[in-house]
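ok, trying the design again with the full structure, not the truncated one.
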């Protein structure tokens, strides 16, 4: 296992270099530059002088070719430096450290809710297979899975936040957040996160519940399940103890695939709900051609994707000791 992990880490480093090189080349060839966009946004009496522009171009290596600029970025990365944001002039690591916990709050809560709810729902659907209740549940889950999260987000904002005024319309916290005590601050964060977390969760919950149920239906047809049933084992014990253990392997392997999907969804949903996480930061950085910030976020997304896949492989071997990696 140790050799396998080391090999996967080395492959992951190579993959990160290829991905970041391609992304850097693409963004450097996008129309406009960070400095030209800054010039368009500033007032005429605050326009940068030609000397200032040349100095900034040299500072951010914009006067170099894209592959030379990537070499500089990679060299700084090797020293643990992600650079400074061109638009805000703050260190990239500082901005990411402020935004990343907010995204992890949404994705972590969604991941936890998905796996806490999909397993009992999937087991119940298996035990109730063929009944009206089970068909209603599966049909409802199918309809949820078919509904895009960004469409649900817009309608939820319109109904829950605007018409019913039950939850905040947008933002991470309220305007008076700093004036509240700790308990009130936590409740304020929860109220603002309920709609985004729901939109993050319902699609994956629908998919994984159906996934658990379909795998369980295959397992319960096995001979050892029939033998246990013939010995008088109860239906819930038969499903929860004997059958469910053999569905853990495909379920665990899906964990690593869930994280990239959640991170990808954060880019759209955070923009809709104006949630100040790294997803919204990524969209804003693209609009401003903030190359250091775009590269840092691309690196974070890529690392989390590769880490999720590696975690799935490790859990695969933990769940089934018969599986070994060389």
């Amino acid at each position: 296992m140790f050799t396998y992990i080391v090999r996967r880490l080395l492959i992951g480093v190579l993959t990160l270099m290829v991905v970041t090189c391609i992304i850097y080349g693409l963004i450097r060839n996008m129309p406009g530059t960070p400095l030209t966009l800054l010039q368009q946004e500033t007032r005429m009496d605050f326009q940068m002088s030609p000397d200032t522009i040349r100095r900034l171009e040299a500072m951010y290596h914009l006067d170099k070719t894209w592959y030379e600029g990537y070499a500089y970025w990679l060299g700084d990365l090797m020293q643990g430096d992600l650079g400074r944001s061109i638009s805000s002039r703050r260190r990239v690591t500082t901005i990411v450290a402020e935004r990343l916990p907010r995204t992890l709050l949404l994705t972590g809560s969604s991941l936890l809710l998905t796996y806490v709810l999909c397993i009992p729902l999937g087991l119940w659907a298996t035990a109730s297979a063929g009944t009206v209740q089970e068909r209603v549940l599966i049909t409802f889950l199918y309809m949820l899975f078919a509904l895009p999260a960004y469409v649900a987000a817009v309608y939820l904002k319109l109904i829950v936040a605007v018409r019913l005024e039950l939850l905040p319309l947008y933002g991470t916290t309220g305007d008076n957040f700093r004036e509240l005590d700790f308990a009130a601050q936590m409740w304020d964060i929860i109220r603002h996160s309920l709609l985004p977390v729901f939109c993050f969760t319902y699609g994956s919950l629908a998919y994984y519940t159906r996934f658990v149920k379909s795998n369980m239906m295959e397992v319960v047809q096995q001979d050892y399940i029939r033998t246990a049933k013939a010995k008088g084992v109860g239906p819930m014990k038969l499903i929860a103890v004997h059958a469910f253990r053999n569905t853990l392997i495909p379920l665990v392997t899906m964990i690593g695939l869930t994280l990239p999907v959640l991170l990808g969804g954060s880019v759209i949903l955070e923009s809709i709900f104006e949630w100040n996480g790294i997803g919204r930061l990524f969209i804003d950085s693209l609009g401003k051609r903030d190359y250091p910030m775009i590269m840092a976020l691309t690196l974070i997304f890529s690392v989390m994707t590769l880490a999720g896949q590696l975690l799935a492989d490790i859990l695969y071997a933990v769940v089934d000791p018969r599986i070994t990696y060389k």
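Keeping the full-length input from now on. The two ends are 7 Å apart (CA to CA).
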